[in-house]
Amino acid sequence: MEGFLDGAYLSALAALAGAIIGGVTSFATTWLTTTTQARATRLATELSARQDLYGRYMTELATLFADALKSDKVDYAKLTGAFALKGRIELMSSGPVVEAADRALKFVVDLTMGPPRSDAEVRAMMDDRNADVIGDFAKACRTELRALG
């Protein structure tokens, strides 16, 4: 027993324990840093993809909205892009964003099926809060993106 408690043994045991603790700590720190960086990169990529998708959808809606003001027929070929983008929104977005996207597209289609609008009617629509479906969609997107970021 006396040989076991010898100073040389204790020093060797302490050095070995220190090396093990140092190695485990280094590994844990590296793993945690790498995991955190990977998560941040994934989140940045996801936010960028959503921003791009939402921007393209709003551009598509704005084009359809402008066409709808002077038309009384639905051009289904023009709607395909908006429906495709809406489908992608449904795959990756929260409920409020999906609902706002759906309301906006339905509003534009309903607008198209109505009579062409005069310039005065178009101007009046700009003041009508219920007609700002693209703005409502943008607000839902902004809320979601802030919650994710």
Explained architecture:
The chain is mainly α and about 150 residues long. It has five helices and no strands. It has a domain at about 45-149. It has helices spanning about 5-70, 75-90, 95-115, 120-125, 135-149. Helix 1 (about 5-70) runs antiparallel to helix 2 (about 75-90), helix 1 (about 5-70) runs parallel beside helix 3 and helix 1 runs antiparallel to helix 5 (about 135-149). The radius of gyration is 30 Å and the shape is rod-shaped.
Tell me the fraction of residues in β-strands, as a range. Answer: under 5%
- The share of residues in helices is over 70%
Large-scale geometry: rod-shaped
- What's the oligomerization state? single chain
Report the order of strands and helices.
HHHHH
User: Average pLDDT across residues?
Assistant: 89
Our Rg estimate from Cα atoms comes to 30 Å
Low-pLDDT ranges: none
Characterize the main sheet. none
Count every helix, treating DSSP H or I runs of 4 or more residues as helices.
Answer: 5
What is the count of β-strands? 0
* Helix-strand category: mainly alpha
Could you provide a short overview of the structure?
The protein has 149 residues and is mainly α. It has five helices and no strands.
Essential attributes:
149 residues; rod-shaped; mainly alpha; 5 helices; single chain
Secondary structure layout:
Elements: H1 7-69, H2 76-92, H3 95-113, H4 119-127, H5 133-148
